[in-house]
UniProtKB/TrEMBL annotation:
Entry protein name: Beta-lactamase family protein
InterPro entries in the record: AmpC-like, Beta-lactam-related, Beta-lactam/transpept-like
Keywords in alphabetical order: Signal
Keyword Signal carried by entry: yes
Length: 369
């Protein structure tokens, strides 16, 4: 199954495109930064984003930026601006789960029923057959809860109970037998958040702090508390297009709608650190990192366990995740050794827009050039 773009409602989209070898060859022979700048400019000028930025770190460190951070502040998006990282959250949650596996507290192929009895049942679902691995890799057959949530836009600012979100997705019926097909579903990661809390006795937010952000100095990264709607200063504003010429400010809203599936907040500087740490094996033992990188298909852009594995046009393999939340498009990808990293912060545009293509091309060009 091709995964050129995986869209799970407003909270998740895997930006993935097949870029021609000629395009990358041009970047390699010329100036990759200039090539990426063309893509970023297009997001702002053609697709009417307020602002967009691509940051590259490693042996070549540079930024390609266009537009501005908000309608009120005439400056480009900076690498210390906070923004909603959307489904990049899934890589953090998967890392915590795989650390628990390494500690013997969970097993990838044990049924979710063993830990959350009665939650995954009915409507074609069987929690005794759906495993932790199925949830991590989106092969559980469980559908996405988000489709009905945005019928009422006020849900963006309401407070939501994670178990209720899970039941919302489960009520939509099964997409197929566990392990049979890939279906990107935020519901999987809501259930994994509940699993972490049941297994540790701590909140998902606390486990991410204890295991990842505090020990590794990611001081600007967090899964906010339910009541924390505002982004920390400084921040990129998020604008969502309702019509081609009408956009609304969706910067500050409840983190409970995405929760463990897509509500973390960070900066491009911290995201680059996280992507490098993960790739370098500093967050997971080798066995668990190998599991994380094992994909469901062999397509150029494939899904592992909370991780997108991208075979770029120049032959390089990159590891990371992308995401979309109302007003924000994000990405963080690193080469296998963690020495080259690219992050995307786009402060405007609604989900599943064609602007995903130039941003996907920008990732390819930045890591290949």
């Amino acid at each position: 199954m091709a995964i050129k773009r995986l869209v799970g409602g407003l909270l998740a989209a895997v930006v993935a495109v097949t870029v021609s070898g000629a395009a990358t060859a041009s970047a390699a022979q010329g100036d990759a930064q200039a090539q990426v700048q063309v893509k970023v400019d297009k997001v702002v000028t053609y697709y009417r984003a307020m602002g967009a930025s691509v940051f590259r770190s490693g042996d070549k460190t540079w930024a390609a930026q266009a537009g501005k951070v908000s309608a009120f502040e005439n400056r480009p998006i900076a690498d210390d601006d906070h923004y909603r990282i959307a489904s990049v959250t899934k890589s953090f949650v998967s890392t915590v789960v795989l650390q628990l596996v390494a500690e013997g507290k969970l097993a990838l192929d044990e049924p979710i029923e063993q830990h959350l009895p009665g939650l995954v049942a009915g409507n074609g679902h069987d929690g005794t057959k759906i495993t932790v691995r199925h949830l991590l890799q989106h092969t559980s057959g469980i559908r996405d809860y988000l489709g009905t949530m945005f019928v009422n836009p006020l849900n963006l600012w309401a407070t939501h109970d994670p178990a209720a979100l899970a039941r919302n997705g489960l009520a939509k019926g099964s997409n197929g037998a566990p392990g049979a097909t890939f279906l990107y579903s935020n519901t999987n990661y809501i259930i994994l958040g509940l699993l972490i809390e049941k297994s540790t006795g701590n909140s998902v937010s606390q486990e991410i702090r204890n295991r990842i952000t505090v020990p590794h100095g990611l001081t600007e990264t967090e899964l906010p508390a339910a009541e924390k709607h505002r982004l920390p200063e400084p921040f990129s504003f998020g604008y969502t297009h309702l019509l081609p010429t009408l956009k609304i400010d969706t910067t500050h809203y409840s983190p409970t709608l995405g929760w463990a599936a897509g509500s973390m907040v960070s900066t491009s500087r911290d995201m680059a650190k996280f992507a490098a740490l993960l790739a370098e094996g500093k967050l997971l033992p080798p066995a668990q990192l190998a599991e994380m990188r094992t994909t469901f298909t062999d397509d150029p852009w494939s899904y592992g366990l909370g991780l997108v594995v991208a075979k770029l046009s120049c032959g390089v393999t990159a590891y990371g995740h992308n995401g979309v939340m109302p007003g924000f498009v994000t990405a963080a990808f690193a080469t296998a050794d963690g020495k080259q990293v690219v992050t995307v912060s786009n402060a405007n545009i609604g989900p599943a827009q064609p602007h995903m293509v130039p941003l996907g091309e920008a990732i390819d060009l930045a890591l290949c050039g």
